[in-house]
Amino acid sequence: MFFKCSECLNFIERFWMSKLEKIQEEILSLSTEERELISIFLKSAQDNMEADYTQAWNKELQRRIDELDNGKADLVSSESAVAEIRKKLFK
Predict the structure, then answer these.
(1) How many domains does the chain have?
(2) Cα-atom radius of gyration of the chain, to the nearest Å?
C-alpha cells in the first residue's frame, strides 16, 4: 500500500506537533532559571549547527561547481527535472 505525499506529510506533522506540544508543556513547568539555561544551550547548539550546515553546503556547492567546470555534469532545465521526477513518481 502506498501513501500519497500529502498523507505522509500530514502524519509527520501531527506526530511532531504532539511531541513539540509535550516539550513545550514541560519547559513551561520549569523555573525561570532553568528555562534561561535551556535557552542558552539551544542558542549555542543552533549556532554550531548553522556553522556546520554552512560549511557542508559550501563544500557541496564547490563540488558541484568543480563538476560543471570539468565537464562532469550537465545542466538540466527545471522543467525537464520536474517532468523526470513526476515520471518516476507516478509510473
Answers:
(1) 2
(2) 21
